[in-house]
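Form 7-S
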Amino acid sequence: MKKFLNNLKNSKLSTIFILLILLFLYTIVCAFSYVNAVSTDISNSVFRLHVIANSDTVEDQSLKYKVRDSLLEYMNTICSSCSSKEEAINIVINEQENFKNVALSTIRNEGFNYDVNIKIGNFEFPTKDYGDISLPAGFYDALRIEIGEAKGQNWWCVMFPSLCFVDISSGIVPEESKENLHDSLSDEEFSIISNTSDFGIKFKFKLLEFFTNSGFMTAKN
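Output:
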């Protein structure tokens, strides 16, 4: 009888252990599915600008910001009225040679002879704050401007919806930009990237970062 009870006890413990493992795996799968869906929706809603300096010298970093300012000024004249990400990308595709010329002109005016390489694609970005909006790390469609050897620190912003012109002094994103972003996301997804979110929403944001930084999220084909 004692042996039978021990076997029964061990059997129950084994069953509980297996159920706990299955529950853990199910939770992981559900969390990954949720994160993948939210990350995809956020990524599909924005188009980013990425400027990479030639090097990390003071001169090259200063040049990067001058190129950035010229690009933003030009960008504001052609993209300020965009109503969708697709429209912004189409404009950039048609204007990419002009973007290159704007960057080259600034570089030459500053006394440098670096070349400029322009790419439009899907690139990996770290977590980035834009005023009171935070975009999680992940892969995003972007216009990339590479100055010279492109071995220096990066600068990036969001071309659509326009988060490049955040009021630095107040750290506030224009309401119109928020509305454009919100229109492309669910209420919960928009809450996840808002810095005014509650603890539960912030935990979901951390989930996004965890899965991305762990290498589970990959670039789009």
